[in-house]
Amino acid sequence: MSEKTILKLQLPTDPLWVKNVVESNIEELLTDHAFCEQKAASNAITLIVQNPNLSELVQEMALLVQEEMDHFKRVHDIILERGYILGRERKDNYVNELRKFIITGGGREAQLIDRLLFSAMIEARSCERFKVLSENINDSKLAEFYHELMISEATHYSMFIRLAKKYAEEIDVEARWKQFLAYEAQVIQNYGKSETIHG
Ligand SMILES: [Fe+2]
Ligand SMILES: [Fe+2]
Q1: Which of 33, 57, 73, 176 is deepest in the core (most CB within 10 A)?
Q2: Domain total for the chain?
């Protein structure tokens, strides 16, 4: 994701989140992060189940499931290397708040586009959080790991936006994306206080 695209997120994360919150509890960050990857894979599976007729989407999601589970495995490897054990899944309040923005009525196209944009939004914010982590964390191995993941999540973000544009017939994707960005900017204001990826 280019600098400019990241900046489309209306509120950047304060790097002090890394210094003051994350670094004091890396174990918690890693457990939460592992489950973010699992949830990204689960979301891709749900998209396949809901849209079996959209062949390009099914192909992309099948690849995405593999990639997100590879990320999961790599986070889990780091957890084990450091002598930790994966904790239980952490609630992701940020994602749950974002999910409320997905349209409930509005027909099949509107629901599909919203689900794709919701997914793009999480990839975009995760990408931004990984960037802030990679640039600020006092741990060279994690800095390198988060840099690599930042690039990967940027690719996922672009893929979801591309799919939304491909499958939109009536809906103005750019206009809806702007609404998502504005909503996300309100939601994220209350975060940056805990040692979770979207915390
Ligand atoms: Fe990932
Ligand atoms: Fe991703």
Answers
A1: 33
A2: 1
